[in-house]
Amino acid sequence: MYEKKIPLPLECGLMMTREILGGKWKPNLLLAISVGISRPSQLHREIPQSTKRVLNLQLKELEEFEMIEKKVYHQLPPKVEYRLTERGKSLMPLLQQMNEWGEKNRPFIKSIILKRTKALD
Amino acid sequence: MYEKKIPLPLECGLMMTREILGGKWKPNLLLAISVGISRPSQLHREIPQSTKRVLNLQLKELEEFEMIEKKVYHQLPPKVEYRLTERGKSLMPLLQQMNEWGEKNRPFIKSIILKRTKALD
DNA sequence: CATATAAGGGATAATATTATCCCCAGAAGA
DNA sequence: TCTTCTGGGGATAATATTATCCCTTATATG
């Protein structure tokens, strides 16, 4: 996320998508924003496993890549809203498929993860 | 990839998909295997930016999650072939979408990445 | 004999990514 | 006054992931 010393192949579509969706919470953020959860505090409540700090970092990157837009209302208390750009919206089918595939296969994947953690004692 | 100390939300479909496709070369490996590039050496030639070592690690994980199957021919020189399982095949539409979206948006994403690296001097 | 190919992996370094902690501002409500 | 809510981020620790290096086995080829 910060600087990359080992340049990644810029000629590969898969890598490009990875660059956008690779962050741990980015897919969740995009999906949440797409359904109208637009303010930072709401997003954090939606994804409480994470931290404001980290969410901010990932939001900033999504903004850098113009997947989302940020509207700042200069008020007190401050108010910020994110929304998807057209480019961001074009990711929705992909994200939905990711989510669906994951849901369908969740029991199976989960069981394997649990086996692994048990194998560690 | 090795051990995870911070447990990830097992109830989220997106996270499950991430667990499978999160490795740097896993999507490429799966796509390559799907088009018949089945032997480790072939795969490495297909993805020369990586290393045998790393590819092996990622292949092993894909196997653990039963996305691919490994056939070992006990010969000399050794011969190994990977192929997709049914579960692995079910990932193909997703991978193709990832690839297509990435290809479409590659020029744009690339330009932003390049701006960032230039901004570092 | 030197080199290549096949597949694999231990040990360790380098990098990248996330998490944690604690701070800031200003206003409203109990 | 003490707490809560808003949004934000510096500094640093902890973890996770990839990369690098080098060695093994056995056959075939120049």
Structure description:
- The structure is a homodimer of 121-residue chains.
- By secondary structure, the first copy, chain A, is mainly alpha-helical.
- Chain A has a single domain (13-118), classed as Winged helix-like DNA-binding domain superfamily/Winged helix DNA-binding domain (Arc Repressor Mutant, subunit A, Orthogonal Bundle), CATH 1.10.10.10.
- Chain A has helices at residues 13-21, 26-34, 40-46, 52-64, 86-89, 92-118, and strands at 68-73, 79-84.
- Chain A has a two-stranded antiparallel sheet.
- In chain A, β1 (68-73) and β2 (79-84) form a beta hairpin.
- Chain A is globular.
- The N and C termini of chain A lie far apart (33 Å).
- The mean pLDDT of chain A is 91.
- Chains A and B meet through α1, α2 and α6 of A and α1, α2 and α6 of B.
- The structure holds a DNA duplex (30 and 30 nucleotides).
Helix content of chain A: 55-70%
The largest chain-to-chain contact, stated as pair and per-chain residue counts, equals: A-B, 46 and 45 residues
Radius of gyration of chain A: 17 Å
Structural class, judged by helices and strands of chain A? mainly alpha
Run of helices and strands of chain A: HHHHEEHH
Q: How many β strands of chain A by DSSP? A: 2
Helix-strand blueprint:
The structure is a homodimer of 121-residue chains.
Chain A: H1 13-21, H2 26-34, H3 40-46, H4 52-64, E1 68-73, E2 79-84, H5 86-89, H6 92-118
Antiparallel strand pairs in A: 1-2
Chain A binds a DNA duplex (30 and 30 nucleotides) through helix 4.
